[in-house]
Amino acid sequence: MNSVLTIDIGGTRIKSALFANGEIVKTHSVLSHGSESRDAILAALDETIREYEGFDAVSVSSAGRFDPKTGVCVYASDNLKGWTGFHLKEYVEEKYGKPCVVDNDAACALLSQLGDCSQDTLMLTLGTGVGACLFKDGEIYRGQNFDLGALQHITINEGGALCDCGKRGCAEKELSGTGLHRIIDKWYPNESVALRDFFVRVRQGEEKALGAMKEYFDLFEVYLAKVRERIPSLKRIVLSGGAVDEVAFAPLLEKHPEIRIADEPNLCGVKGAYRLYEKEQHGIR
């Protein structure tokens, strides 16, 4: 039996799954404590790994820029505090004695959805932050210094929220779950509305909820226009992550048939990590 532990590290949660002969046999999820410190993230990672026994290898999908050959995090925002410069692959291999592969979470999410696709495709993971990865000319576009083209740092709201990159109004801050929460707070100034509850209100047709989604979609339209200017060959856009809801996003999907929500969006990271492992086994970069 070939068992692979796959781990998806985000700013809010660490999700994991054990694959045996290509099938998921167990899943687990814990808070990542990403905004606290590297030590807090590693404590959550160790807690995750201790949940499993009998795996032969580990494959990790993580937010942040990664050199997939070395498994080093070249850069991460404060969504994963202290992650920049960390040798994640080395840490797992030395502590647990298992071979490990590592890549960016958006790249892994993209791998989970490609199948036999040859079209130029953009994957957007909408969670605590925004991950963006482009499949172009038959391969993942790595960009400069493993930044994947930094497509999440396109400015879409002049004078908007300050991004960790130093600019204001990046898609990273405006289209993430964090950005959507800011819009929700503006529409509901006298109450705290959790994202799941907000999506229920959208489904129920509540006027304020629909107004907040329209404001969010207006920013999304700006992003789409700027992405198409940069990538005229783009044919498909796939959305995944905890801030994606099929019903709430229906108006955007109806207007843009080239956009679709990923299959099982909350499992894209762990499924993509398994695809990453398979590629490594066959020597595919």
Write a structural description.
By secondary structure, the chain is α/β, with parallel strands linked by helices. It folds into two domains: about 120 residues, Nucleotidyltransferase, domain 5 (2-Layer Sandwich); about 160 residues, 2-Layer Sandwich (Nucleotidyltransferase, domain 5), CATH 3.30.420.40. The chain is built from nine helices and twelve strands. Helix 3 crosses helix 9 and helix 5 packs antiparallel against helix 7. The chain is globular, with a radius of gyration of 18 Å. The model has no long low-confidence stretch (mean pLDDT about 95).
Salient structural properties:
285 residues, alpha/beta, Nucleotidyltransferase, domain 5, five-stranded mixed β-sheet, 35% helix, globular
